[in-house]
């Protein structure tokens, strides 16, 4: 049943935007996507929503909601079936805690590691635009713009090569945490919950980075992420963080 026709403002390949898309799909809510091109998304998002980041949605009523977790809460309110949170209070609290960790702690890890990798491998940038509705820029133009774009994004995301190397070293402990959440039944149930939808797209984005994928493959979380979230566009060849 369609209870509204929200407009989703998104950036192609953005992991929290995929979280919202998966939630909309699960609930069978038809929507329109408005794709923004970074870094030009910032003035548009600020003007329309008063924030710089996406995902953001505008409902038919004109109501605006920003941030993946707030959007999922709103979708559950508007269309309760299927629910994204368990009915049992204890289990619900566990899912909400995992979802918060996924948003605040784990989501930034992908940006921290990916942007310095793309600054080394500008030739990989077009692969992340595959499937975008926006016209692709010719390779020589991307090559010309890449240093500026990757430097801006590294600044926006408080990262650089050394920070990314440290994040790669810290990743196995975070993967242990996800594997534990799966073992505890917080993630990986028959029906994906809000924490599944929040964390799996980040993991899938990390799996596009050649030096990072081997740290994930073979773990329970690799199979789980493949089940929950689609394969995103993009690939950075191995060798960037080889000595990390
Ligand atoms: N944790 C927030 C953050 C969203 C976020 O940072 N989105 C990125 C795309 S993955 C963004 O809009 N970046 C652009 C920028 O920082 O200007 C959420 O889940 O909604």
Observed structural traits:
binds glutathione, Glutathione S-transferase Yfyf (Class Pi), Chain A, domain 2, 2 domains, 244 residues, 6% strand, four-stranded mixed β-sheet, mainly alpha, Glutaredoxin
Sequence-ordered SSE layout with sheet pairings:
Elements: E1 7-10, H1 15-26, E2 32-35, H2 41-49, E3 56-58, E4 64-66, H3 68-78, H4 89-120, H5 125-128, H6 139-156, H7 161-183, H8 194-206, H9 213-216, H10 220-228
Parallel strand pairs: 1-2
Antiparallel strand pairs: 1-3, 3-4
The protein binds glutathione.
CATH topology of the largest domain: Glutathione S-transferase Yfyf (Class Pi), Chain A, domain 2
CATH class of the largest domain: Mainly Alpha
Number of helices: 10
C-alpha Rg (nearest Å): 18 Å
> Can you summarize the main beta sheet?
4 strands, mixed
Number of domains: 2
- Could you tell me how far the N terminus lies from the C terminus, measured between alpha carbons in angstroms? 50 Å
DSSP helix fraction: 55-70%
Protein structure class: mainly alpha
Question: Globular, elongated, flat, extended or rod-shaped: what is the shape?
Answer: globular
Bound ligands: glutathione
Mean pLDDT: 94
Tell me what the structure shows.
The protein is mainly alpha-helical. It has 2 domains: 7-78, Glutaredoxin, CATH 3.40.30; 89-228, Glutathione S-transferase Yfyf (Class Pi), Chain A, domain 2 (Up-down Bundle). The protein is built from 10 helices and 4 strands. It has a 4-stranded mixed β-sheet, with helices on one face. The site of glutathione has 15 residues, from helix 1 and helix 4.
């Amino acid at each position: 049943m369609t209870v509204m026709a929200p407009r989703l403002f998104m950036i192609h390949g953005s992991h929290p935007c995929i979280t919202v898309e998966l939630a909309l799909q699960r609930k069978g809510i038809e929507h329109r996507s408005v794709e923004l091109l970074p870094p030009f998304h910032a003035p548009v998002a600020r003007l329309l929503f008063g924030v710089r980041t996406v995902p953001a949605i505008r409902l038919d009523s004109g109501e605006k909601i920003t941030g993946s977790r707030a959007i999922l809460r709103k979708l559950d309110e508007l269309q309760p079936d299927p629910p994204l949170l368990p009915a049992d209070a204890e289990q619900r609290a566990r899912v909400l805690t995992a979802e918060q960790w996924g948003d605040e702690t784990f989501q930034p890890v992908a940006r921290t590691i990916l942007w310095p990798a793309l600054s080394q491998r500008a030739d990989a940038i077009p692969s992340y635009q595959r499937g975008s509705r926006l016209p692709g820029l010719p390779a020589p133009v991307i090559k010309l713009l890449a240093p500026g774009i990757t430097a801006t994004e590294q600044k926006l995301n408080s990262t650089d090569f050394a920070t990314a190397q440290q994040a790669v070293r810290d990743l196995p402990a975070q993967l242990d945490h996800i594997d534990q959440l799966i073992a505890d039944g917080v993630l990986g149930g028959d029906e994906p919950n809000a924490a599944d939808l929040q964390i799996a797209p980040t993991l899938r984005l990390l799996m596009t980075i050649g030096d990072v994928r081997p740290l994930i493959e073979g773990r329970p979380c690799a199979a789980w992420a493949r089940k929950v979230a689609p394969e995103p566009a993009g690939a950075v060849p191995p060798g960037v963080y080889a000595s990390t």
